[in-house]
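Exercise: predict the structure of this protein bound to asparagine.
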Amino acid sequence: MLPVVVVHGGAGQIPKQRTEQSTLGVCTAVRAAYTILRGGGSSMDAVVEAVTQMEDNPSFNAGHGSVLNAKGGVEMDAIVMEGKTLGSGAVSAVRNIANPVQLARLVMDKTSHACLTAEGASQFARAMGVPEVPEESLITEYSRMRWTKNLAPEANPVECQMGKMGTVGAVAVDSEGNIACATSTGGMLNKMEGRVGDTPCIGSGGYADNNVGAVSTTGHGEAIMKVTLARLILFHMEQGHSVEAASDLGLAYMKSRVAALGGVVTVDPRGHWAARFSSRQMSWAAAQKDTLHYGLYTGEHFTQSIDHPH
Ligand SMILES: NC(=O)C[C@H](N)C(=O)O
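Solution:
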């Protein structure tokens, strides 16, 4: 069954005019990651490549295309974790870099820490030679439009969040059976400056353990943290549930316990995979055995050959 990679482009409600770009984005990212796996590359390289591509894609709320905070700025969170050693790296509230997921990986590889935040993360990025980019280059017309709309006195904050839930994430198992996850986000629209969400928090935004599996999550961060969604799903897998059942149990608990919707991508060590969500939509894609799988609405599942798209 191995290798496999599964990605998501965020749970929520995607405006009609953006659905096509979103589906295209997850499919392109999963293809790039699968090429790495098929060439014998590691699951960590694969998930970082997939998430990097989606950070660069303005259709998603991560990197270029991130939502704006209350002051109109961009602060981003990201995490990576590898299942062999349980090593992880994260950055939170980081500014002025194009690819927070790559900085998270550097935190894992080059420091003895699990997470660096804000100005400290920026200093570390500089020390590692990561180029600084102007904030303007991360902001799209669409994210500025959403932000402005949200400032209007009659704005409905819940409605405004919809369509900008596009956090991105990936999980993978490589041909050696090593498992990894990565998640990256601009957070929640209009968040307070300095707000840190679930994404960089181990066990909430993601978790990977070669003995159990891996999960990357998306949804309302404060709710995800309350139930430590990624680790909760892996707990259900430890209890013998399938990737699909465990994902649904975790999401159902979050819905009943804290009235929140979300989505996840999940793998187990044998290469079973799932893309599950309680929100109306989540763009997702998976690649395994040279087949591309993708979908957007509940119950949707399209397949095509990786090498011969039609
Ligand atoms: N779109 C998302 O998934 C948001 C992210 N979980 C956060 O709260 O920061």
